[in-house]
Amino acid sequence: MTDSLFTQPQLQDRYRETTDPVLQLEKINVTFDSFRALTDLSLSIGVGELRCVIGPNGAGKTTLMDIITGKTRPDSGTITYDQNIDLTGMSPVEISRAGIGRKFQKPTVFEALSVTENLEIALKMDKSVWTSLRARLSGEQRDRIDEVLLLLRLTEHRQRPSGLLSHGQKQFLEIGMLLVQEPHLLLLDEPAAGLTDAETEYIAELFRTLAGKHSLMVVEHDMGFVETIADYVTVLHQGQVLAEGSLREVQANEQVIDVYLGR
Ligand SMILES: Nc1ncnc2c1ncn2[C@@H]1O[C@H](COP(=O)(O)OP(=O)(O)OP(=O)(O)O)[C@@H](O)[C@H]1O
Predict the structure, then answer these.
(1) Which residue puts its alpha carbon closest to atom 31 of ligand 1?
(2) What is the CATH number of domain 2-261?
(3) Taking every annotated instance into account, which residue ranges of this chain make up the domain ABC transporter (predicted)?
């Protein structure tokens, strides 16, 4: 089922290998007043990779997502998406249209609207809420919504006002709102926060399914969840990359143990 939804190749896909970077950050610096939130940060994420970013509070994880999505402008450095798109001068809307979707930690669904209506709005991000609700969906768009409802286990709740969903269902709906837009790169901030064990297990399985067809960058504190999903982990500390590698490798790193994992 996911195959038909997530294999809409872009023209350049056939020239890409999974080792090619979908996102490259080089020497990014971000300063708030005189505080250095990111310092000379360089990071590369491969096509189809599932990357986890971990690190203590204040390490710069949210700021990292903010500069990728255009919410915050870096003072210096370059951000290259899909090998030749320079994100540094683009607006958040342009970046989203280029294929980068972001899910914030707190669900931000339209609570008065039904589950399906939320997905319809997400499909037509370029229109206002009411215009998009009145606009007719194509058959293909309806199919895509149905597939996402099924994938996120929301089919039987499709007519319910979203405000009546559980916290986990709202998180799933928001992930669905990203998926209907078919992003190439998904940025997810603590997607497992507040989920039940069963929901966490399902979301881990879902992310593993999405990886390969999408690239994912997941910021997460729950090490059990990171262990289940991550191929490769980046540890941030004080706005810099402290370590990178498999979870086992970074867990064995003395500096990572000192500043984040504890002894
Ligand atoms: N707009 C801002 N103005 C001033 N300082 C900021 C601003 N945004 C972030 N900071 C500071 O930058 C540092 C990095 O913050 P950031 O939110 O990116 O960290 P984080 O790793 O996401 O932390 P957490 O795990 O607590 O969410 C923090 O010390 C924070 O106080």
Answers:
(1) 58
(2) 3.40.50.300
(3) 23-263
d(CA 25, CA 69): 12
Question: Does residue 8 have a pLDDT over 50?
Answer: no
Give the distance (Å) from ligand 1 centre to CA of residue 201: 29
Q: Which residue has the tokens 């992930």?
A: 175
Query: Which of 61, 80, 73 has the alpha carbon at shortest distance from 29?
Result: 73
Which residues lie with the beta carbon below 6 Å from any ligand 1 atom? 32, 35, 37, 55, 57-63
76 CA from centroid of ligand 1 (Å): 18
Ligand 1, atom 8, lies closest to the CA of: 63
Phi, psi angles (nearest 5°) of residue 158: -60, -30
Ligand 1 atom nearest the C-alpha of 64 is 18
Half-sphere exposure in the Cβ direction for 131 (13 Å, CA): 5
Lowest mean pLDDT, pick from 126-130, 143-147, 228-232, 243-247:
126-130
Question: Which H or E run contains 77?
Answer: strand 76-81
- Side-chain-side CA neighbours of 141 within 13 Å: the count stands at 15
Q: Are 218 and 210 in contact (CB under 8 A)?
A: no
pLDDT of residue 223: 87
Using DSSP's 3-state secondary structure scheme, residue 19 falls into coil
* CB-count burial class (<10 Å; 0-12, 13-18, 19+) for 15: exposed
Q: What is the distance between the alpha carbons of residues 177 and 143, in angstroms, rounded to a whole number?
A: 14
ipTM reported for the complex surpasses 0.90: yes
> Pairing mode, if any, of strands 35-46 and 21-32?
antiparallel
Give the domain ranges of the chain.
2-261
